[in-house]
Amino acid sequence: MPDRTDYSALIAGHTAVIEMINSGDAGLPVLNQLLRVAQPALGAAGMAFVEFAPSGGRVIAATGAAEWTVGRPLPANDPVTICLLAGPRVQSVRTDEFTNHLATELSERGLRRMVVGRAEIGGHTVGSLHALYLAGEEEPSAEQRGVVGYLGSCIAHMYGDQSGLPVHGDGPVVAALADGLAVVDRDAHVRLWNPAAAEVTGRPSADAINQPLPFPLPPSGQVLDHRLPDGRWLRITSGELPGPGTLRVVTFRDISDQQRHDHERDLFVAVTSHELRTPVTVIKGYADTLTDHWESLSEPDRRQAARVIGQRANELARLLDRLLSSAAEQWPGDGPPVPFDLAGTLRAAVAELPTELRRRTTLQLPAELPRPVGHRQSLATVLTELVTNAGKYSQPDSEIDISAGADGQTVCFRVSDRGIGVRPEHVERAFDRFWQGDSGDRRRYPGTGLGLFLVRRIVEQQNGWVFLRPRTGGGTVAEVRLPRR
User: Fold this and answer.
1) Are residues 184 and 142 in the same domain?
2) Domain Histidine kinase, which positions (predicted)?
């Protein structure tokens, strides 16, 4: 420790700091430069500045042997914090007289003496400046304590001018923000990380402070949607803090749900426009033919055109029912589930299938089938969807088998085809809305990807479950189970 403060070096260095401020620099770069100037002038082993907020303090700048302390917190109820905020504005203390974790680390590293000067504005403490000295050195002089007090006042003046400070600033307003909020320096290193930021990113403040921002930083005033490695989406905005400083404030929030909804909306529009186009085109074509060529068409041709129009209209109505049902929160059932005749429901549903599916379907039912608890009308829809799905993914002349059975707790029916089968990794994905195994622009199989999604919704709302599995010999088995009466 030098006998006297090096005022020449201090004044020269302080002049350079003022020139930094005049040229537009502010905030942490200026604060760090001030500490670098003060350390040798005071003969200190290290310098540190603690910024205070209602919840406590945090080291936001440090040099020399104290540089490792940056980001370390000082809780409001910590004895060191209480000591620093009380008593004389400038005081000399020993770190080995305190028992908190930070003081213990300082002492263990040989930094056992320090001069502390509070930075105050109108009696309100915004921070404290610390000059740290090694063990064995003499007690800091009154001259050195006076310089620390002076520099603390200079830093308080920076706060009063809002020159990129405060940095920590985790007051009740910032802490209560629902959106993540960070303050970063010119190198995009984090200086402030509010509780919502930790919650949104899963990165606690201790791991974020003084580290690079864990996502891209958009230009000031612009918005960026960014996907995290775990698949979640953030919407990020940034702006310059008031004053000529280089600090920027960044806000961000999780928009994964919105992204998913937007994706489903776009997919909904794409799929429905594709699937609606075919029946509408066919209906219009046959209707135009009947209108323009009625007299020249034979009676059988007219009947065939009317039959095709009717079939395509039925397909269109069924597609619209699917779309509306997929958007509804609840399937329109007939009140609470009740016992019903599953065998009779299956027979009636098979009779209502389109002709080309009905001729391929075989129905095998046991002589006695217990009654399940559910909605008869909706189960007919389930069967129709499963048989339609089986027909779509199998050869036009292959059979589709429908069977039923029961155990002690459930009643079930199965729809088995001899088609392309289902891959194990697709067994669950097949029930996702709009999902298809051969999705893309060149799909071999038409459809919206809503059939199995609706089937699962209907069945689960009746306390049942549905699943797929490969059929022995090739193809797929879809099985529906409902609670037994």
Assistant:
1) no
2) 271-485
Query: Does pLDDT of 440 surpass 50?
Result: no
Taking the C-alpha atoms of residue 245 and residue 410, their distance in angstroms, rounded to an integer, is 70
Do the Cβ atoms of 208 and 190 come closer than 8 Å?
yes
Residue 318 and residue 345 share a domain:
no
Tens-place pLDDT, residues 225-266: 998 888 889 999 988 765 444 678 898 998 888 877 766 666
Distance CA 299, CA 313 (A): 21
In a domain? residue 175? no
Helix or strand holding residue 58 (H, E): strand 56-64
Number of domains within the chain: 4
Mean residue pLDDT of the chain comes to: 81
| Beta strands at 361-364 and 400-406: parallel, antiparallel or unpaired | parallel
Are residue 214 and residue 242 in the same domain, yes or no?
Answer: yes
Residues 31, 90 share a domain: yes
Of 257, 288, 310, the domain-final residue: 257
Residue 92's SS3 state is: strand
Cα separation, 82 vs 68, in Å, equals 23
Burial pattern 439-449, b for ≥16 Cβ within 10 A else e, equals eeeeeeeebbb
Regarding pTM above 0.70, the answer is: no
136 three-class SS: coil
pLDDT tens digit string along 165-219?
A: 666 554 444 555 678 888 888 788 887 888 888 888 988 888 888 889 999 999 8
99 C-beta neighbours (distance < 10 Å), count: 10
The CATH number covering residue 26 comes to 3.30.450.40
**Do 12 and 151 fall into the same domain?**
yes
Assess whether 314 and 403 both reside in one domain. Answer: no
- Give the C-alpha separation, 81 to 72, whole Å: 13
Name the amino acid, one letter, at 176: A
Structural domain boundaries enclosing 46? 7-161
- Tens-place pLDDT, residues 109-150: 999 999 999 988 777 788 899 999 998 777 888 888 999 999
